[in-house]
Amino acid sequence: MAIQISSEILEGIVLAALQQADLYGYALTQQVQSIFDISESTIYPVLRRLKKEQYLTTYDQPYQGRNRRYYQITDLGQQRLASIKCDWQDFNKKVNQVLGDQDESRN
To answer: Is the pLDDT of residue 104 over 60?
Structure first.
């Protein structure tokens, strides 16, 4: 059984990837899929939502006669990412208190 990724964590994953570099949708999807088992159709609604909430902006670049739409994290997106990271650290600490301590007590 696989653990499902919440929408907030998925937003954080996308924002963190875009913090490293501007990416077009397919490249971003490939990067995320190299780590997490998610479908390609999962990323695009996240990108639309993040753009609508002004956490991302877009710009187009020509590539082989077509335009690629690149996504870029905004200052507001940086703040959102910091908030998600903080929430994740708190959640992770609590999960480890429940799951991690049980494993350690067996040693």
So the answer is: no
pLDDT value for 39: 87
Q: 49 is written with which tokens?
A: 């939502």
Rounded distance, CA 59 to CA 36, Å? 26
pLDDT digits (tens, 9 = 90+) for 67-100: 999 999 999 999 999 999 999 999 999 999 999 7
Q: Which residue type occupies 106?
A: R
What type of residue sits at position 70?
Answer: Y
Instruction: Report the C-alpha gap between 66 and 56 in whole angstroms.
Output: 22
Strands (E), the chain: 23-24, 56-63, 66-73
- Rounded CA gap, 70 and 17, in Å? 12
- For residue 34, the 8-state DSSP code is T
Q: Which domains does the chain have, with CATH numbers?
A: 7-105 (1.10.10.10)
CA distance 34 to 107: 34
